[in-house]
C-alpha cells in the first residue's frame, strides 16, 4: 500500500491507497515539538495492521521536513519520495520562483491536470485559502493566497479586546443582528464573495473559462453562499496528487536519471 502524507500548518493528513483504491485516512496535529522518534512510534502504531510499500510526503512546515521523512523511512524501511519542484511533476511550473510553491499546491495542480481537461482553478480551504491556477496548456501559473476561515476567526479574537471566540457555523443573514452573526457574515459570506470575485478576475486574466474544483474542510459550508457553484468538490484531491507524483517518480525511466536532489539532502 502507498502512504500519502500531506503536512499542513494545522494537521498532517495521512491517506492510504491500495493501487487506485482509497482505503483509509488518519489525521495528526502538526506538532513541531515532537521528535522524529516520537513520530516514528506514532506511525508504527497507526499502521501496524497495514503493509506500507511506499510513501510520498508533501510538506509546508519546514521544521517537520527532515524528522517526518526519517520517521517514515525508519518506520516502514523504505525511502520516501519528498515533493518539491525538483521531482518529476509532469506539468510546467510557470511561476516566477517555483521553489516558493507549497507542496500541497503542486499536488493539487498535478491532480487536476490529470483528471480534468482545459483550464482549472483549484480552491483549497485550509489554514490559508488558496487558489491554484492551471491553464489549458497544463501550466501552473500561480494563484492566490488568503487567510483561511479559522485563521480569520483567530485573528479577530486575538487582535481585538471585545470580539468573542466563536465556532464556525452557518451564517443566517448578511446583516448580523448581534456580534456572533456579524462575525459569521464577515468571515463566511465574506469568503464566498472573495471566491466569486477572484474566480471572475482569474478567468478574465486567463482569457478562458475554467473548471472550478474545491477541496478542504470548509468548501461545503462556503458553497451555500456562492453565486457560481463549484463544478466539483474533491476532499482528497491533494492526496490523489501526491499519489500521482509518487507514481511519476518511481517509474524506471525517471529513477535512472537520479534526480532526487532534495531527497538526498533529507537522508
Overall description:
39% of the residues lie in helices and 24% in strands. It is built from nine helices and eleven strands. The protein starts with a strand and ends with a helix. The model is unreliable at 253-267 (pLDDT under 50).
What is the count of helical runs? 9
Helix content: 25-40%
The beta-strand count equals 11
| Computed structural class | alpha/beta
Mind summarizing the main beta sheet? Answer: 6 strands, mixed
Assembly of the depicted chains: single chain
Radius of gyration: 19 Å
Which residue ranges are poorly predicted, with pLDDT under 50 across at least 5 consecutive positions? 253-267
SSE arrangement:
Layout: E1 2-7, E2 11-18, E3 21-29, H1 36-46, E4 54-59, H2 62-76, E5 81-82, E6 92-93, H3 103-115, E7 120-125, E8 128-134, E9 139-147, H4 149-159, H5 179-206, E10 211-216, H6 219-222, E11 232-233, H7 237-249, H8 252-255, H9 261-266
Parallel strand pairs: 1-4, 4-5, 6-9, 7-10, 10-11
Antiparallel strand pairs: 1-2, 2-3, 7-8, 8-9
Helix pairs in contact: 1-2, 3-7
Task: Give a brief outline of the structure.
This protein is an alpha/beta fold and 267 residues long. Helix content is 39%, strand content 24%.
Keywords:
267 residues, alpha/beta, six-stranded mixed beta sheet, five-stranded mixed beta sheet, disordered C terminus
Amino acid at each position: 500500500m502507498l502512504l500519502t502524507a500531506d503536512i499542513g500548518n494545522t494537521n498532517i493528513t495521512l491517506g492510504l491507497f491500495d493501487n487506485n483504491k482509497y482505503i483509509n485516512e488518519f489525521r495528526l496535529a502538526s506538532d513541531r515539538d515532537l521528535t522524529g522518534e516520537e513520530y516514528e512510534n506514532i506511525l508504527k502504531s497507526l499502521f501496524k495492521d497495514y503493509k506500507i510499500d511506499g510513501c510520498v510526503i508533501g510538506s509546508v512546515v519546514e521544521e517537520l521536513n527532515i524528522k517526518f521523512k526519517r520517521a517514515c523511512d525508519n518506520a516502514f524501511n523504505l525511502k520516501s519520495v519528498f515533493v518539491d519542484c525538483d521531482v518529476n511533476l509532469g506539468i510546467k511550473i510557470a511561476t516566477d520562483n517555483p521553489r516558493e510553491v507549497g507542496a500541497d499546491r503542486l499536488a493539487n495542480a498535478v491532480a487536476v491536470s490529470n483528471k480534468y481537461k482545459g483550464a482549472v482553478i483549484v480552491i483549497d480551504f485550509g489554514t490559508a485559502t488558496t487558489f491554484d491556477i492551471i491553464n489549458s496548456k497544463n501550466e501552473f501559473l500561480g494563484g492566490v493566497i488568503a487567510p483561511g476561515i479559522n485563521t480569520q476567526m483567530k485573528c479577530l479574537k486575538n487582535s481585538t479586546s471585545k470580539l468573542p471566540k466563536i465556532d464556525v457555523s452557518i451564517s443566517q443573514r448578511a446583516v448580523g443582528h448581534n456580534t456572533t452573526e456579524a462575525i459569521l457574515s464577515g468571515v463566511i459570506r465574506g469568503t464566498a464573495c472573495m471566491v466569486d470575485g477572484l474566480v471572475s478576475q482569474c478567468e478574465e486574466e486567463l482569457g478562458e473559462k475554467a473548471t472550478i474544483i474545491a477541496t478542504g474542510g470548509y468548501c461545503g459550508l462556503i458553497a451555500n453562499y456562492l453565486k457560481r457553484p463549484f463544478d466539483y468538490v474533491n476532499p482528497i484531491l491533494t492526496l490523489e496528487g501526491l499519489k500521482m507524483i509518487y507514481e511519476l517518480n518511481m517509474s524506471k525511466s525517471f529513477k535512472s536519471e537520479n534526480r532526487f536532489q532534495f531527497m538526498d539532502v533529507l537522508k
